[in-house]
Write a structure and sequence with these properties.
Elements (H helix, E strand, L loop, with lengths): L4 E7 L5 E7 L24 E2 L5 E7 L11 E4 L11 E7 L3 E4 L6 H6 L2 H10 L5 E4 L3 E11 L4 E8 L8 E3 L3
Parallel strand pairs: 3-6
Antiparallel strand pairs: 1-2, 4-5, 4-11, 5-10, 6-9, 6-11, 7-8, 9-10
Length: 174
């Protein structure tokens, strides 16, 4: 859900009357009303490191953005059951791609038969892609948890050094 505004109920019943006191976006017919969560009022966060050996992923980006940057909100697949709490700081790593290694050889004889130029031609033509190699994950940024549930959390990206996407991993900060 996306918060589009706030208001105060001035008359109860069916239908009730709501006086809008603040709006962030256009409020449309069919939008849902929710009571304000007491955790939203006057909450302060004190950064603390995430639990040791944390390993999770970004499962969604609020507002459905393709790329995530500083001050964007992300949804993580780890929550209170993994030891996270409001204020926990996590490191974000961009997952390394899996690529074909055209120079990986299984035996020396094969290497002697195939020269450098022919290997390059095979790679660009799509032939003989070689063994698949996973490139290492690269540090991409840092986020702080601001809302924790049992098995998911919401976090604010505090720092982004490179592109962050859904599927990138989160870990305990170094």
């Amino acid at each position: 859900a996306t918060n589009v505004g706030e208001g105060t109920v001035v008359r109860t019943g069916d239908p009730a009357t709501l006086k809008l006191t603040d709006s962030n976006r256009e409020i449309l017919r069919g939008d849902r009303l929710l009571t304000i969560d007491p955790r939203d009022i006057g909450q302060n966060f004190y950064p603390l490191p995430a639990p040791a050996d944390l390993d999770g992923s970004i499962i969604s980006v609020v507002d459905g953005l393709s790329y995530v940057g500083q001050y964007d909100i992300i949804v993580l697949n780890r929550g209170a059951n993994a030891g996270l709490e409001d204020g926990s700081v996590v490191s974000i790593y961009q997952r390394g791609d899996v690529v074909a290694d055209p120079y990986a050889q299984t035996n020396v004889e094969h290497q002697a038969e195939d020269g450098f130029v022919s290997k390059v031609k095979k790679v660009f033509s799509g032939e003989g892609a070689g063994n698949l190699v996973k490139l290492p994950d690269e540090p991409a940024g840092e986020a702080m948890i601001f809302r924790t549930y049992e098995s998911i959390s919401y976090a604010l990206v505090r720092r982004a050094e490179r592109e962050i996407h859904e599927g990138d991993s989160i870990r305990t900060p170094d």
